[in-house]
């Protein structure tokens, strides 16, 4: 399984058609993977969306990683699982088979070490910059990001207030790639 350099996360939108447009447009942006994270929806609506997404992402050969916020019912149908920080604290072992992606959101050295113990395939390290979605979290900045990314052999994605144009800067600071939400889905 190849990890992409650019890793989008679904935006929060009330209109599923906007999400579909963004996903089908992502094929033209050469995205090969995205993380499905829709915290504002109830689980039945999430399942409906995933049912609709499955054939579309298969058609465009796009891998879908399910955020652990949504539980584990749909993970077997898709390409992997991404543990959020809350679920990381309760996890004792790798939660998916080795043939699926397993990523973990990290914010500090302890999270990174736990991700290694859990045999993650990659980590998100965030927030690099201030973001509107996590305005109460202090940004790491590039210096701290660089220091923390050196603490692991795992591929590290920079996340938080970044866009596709930040890939080179992220790589210069030890990142494998970049992840993001709002600035990744615009054309």
Give a written overview of the molecule.
- With 187 residues, the protein is an alpha/beta fold.
- The protein has a single domain, classed as TIM Barrel (Alpha-Beta Barrel).
- 32% of the residues lie in helices and 18% in strands.
- The protein has helices at residues 16-28, 43-59, 85-90, 109-117, 141-149, 167-172, and strands at residues 6-8, 33-36, 63-67, 80-83, 101-106, 122-125, 156-159, 177-180.
- α2 (43-59) links the parallel β2 (33-36) and β3.
- α1 (16-28) packs parallel to α2 (43-59).
- The mean pLDDT is 88.
Supply database-style keywords.
single chain, 187 residues, alpha/beta, TIM Barrel, eight-stranded parallel sheet
Task: Give me the secondary-structure topology.
Layout: E1 6-8, H1 16-28, E2 33-36, H2 43-59, E3 63-67, E4 80-83, H3 85-90, E5 101-106, H4 109-117, E6 122-125, H5 141-149, E7 156-159, H6 167-172, E8 177-180
Parallel strand pairs: 1-8, 2-3, 3-4, 4-5, 5-6, 6-7, 7-8
